[in-house]
Each structure stands twice: as structure tokens, then as C-alpha cells.
Amino acid sequence: MVVVFDTETSGLSPQRHDRIIEIGALKLSNNIIIDEFSSLIDVDVPISPHAQAVHGISSQMLRGQSQPEQVFRAFQKFVGQLPLVAHNASFDRNFLHAEYARLGDRLTNKIECTLQLSRKRLANLPNHKLETVYLVLGGVVDQNIKRHRALDDARMAAFVWEKLQGFGGE
């Protein structure tokens, strides 16, 4: 089993006090989704205009949502010690580490990266953005998919993870 996840953030750097504002995750067993986790997070930081243009999440959307401590404790319970998978995992990992550090805790799960895996196994692609890899591997993007929203991006990353497992290599 693995947990494929994605985050949306208020900006690009936890070192500049940007925060996770949405997290979505899928628990997979034999590449079948058996559970999911999703939450917007009410943080008291401004969302950069660039970030908001990408994911469409506004400060108003976050008001009244769960607090970071609640969300990250629930996420920790959801994932347990399972390996985590994300596209561009270093970005998400840095933010997760910063959020758990704020709680005086650590997330120690192993994290796999579909971006790195796609670069190894699909080296000739023009780019390795999640949507590009997803489409090349046979994924279909329809109007119900909200790009750059955590749960839908986690669904795309789960598809990529599953397909890349069938390629040679590691």
C-alpha cells in the first residue's frame, strides 16, 4: 500500500512563511483506491496572487475550514507509516516538514517522486509536468478534473504512479 498525495500552497517557499492551504491524498492497495483524504486549511497567511492564479483558492475559501493542527494530525493518522508518493515530491515534502515542525513533530514516511520516476522512465518527453506525463501514459482529462487542486492532482499522480510501475527500471 501507498498514499499518493498533493498539496496546494499559499506561495512557493515555506522558508518565506508560505503554508499548505489544501491537501489531498489517496490510499492505494494494489493500485486500487481504498480511501481518500482531502481538506482545505484555514491558515493566517496571505495567498500570493501567482499561487491563487494557479489553483484558484482564495483566502475567503479558507475561512472557517479546519485548522492546520487538526488537518496534519488527521493526515498523519491517515498515512500511518505507509510510503508516500507525490509528483515533484521535494516541493511537497519541504512544505510538510515545515508544517509538522510547527507542530513540534516530524513526518518520517518514505516519499517517492513520480516526477523523478518519469524523468528516468520517459526521458524523451518535452517536459515532465504532471498533466503531460498523465496524458502520455493514457490519462484522460475531462471537465470534471480541477487541475491544481490537491485531490484531483493526487488522482492524476496515482494514475502516473500505477502506469510507471509497469515500466522497467528500479
Distance separating the two termini: 18 Å
Element pattern in H and E: EEEHHHEHEHHH
For CATH, the homologous superfamily is named as: Ribonuclease H-like superfamily/Ribonuclease H
- Across the major sheet, the strand order is 3-2-1-4-5
Helix-strand layout with pairing:
Blueprint lengths: L1 E8 L10 E10 L2 E9 L8 H7 L3 H4 L5 H12 L4 E3 L2 H14 L8 E3 H8 L8 H7 L13 H16 L5
Parallel strand pairs: 1-4, 4-5
Antiparallel strand pairs: 1-2, 2-3
Helix pairs in contact: 5-7, 6-7
Give the gist of this structure:
With 170 residues, this protein is of the alpha/beta class.
Outline the structure in words:
The structure is a single chain. With 170 residues, the protein is α/β, with parallel strands linked by helices. The protein has one domain (2-165): Nucleotidyltransferase, domain 5 (2-Layer Sandwich). The protein has 7 helices and 5 strands; from the N terminus they run βββαααβαβααα. The protein has helices at residues 49-55, 59-62, 68-79, 89-102, 114-121, 130-136, 150-165; strands at residues 2-9, 20-29, 32-40, 84-86, 111-113. A 5-stranded mixed beta sheet has the order 3-2-1-4-5, sandwiched between helices. Helix 5 runs parallel beside helix 7 (150-165).
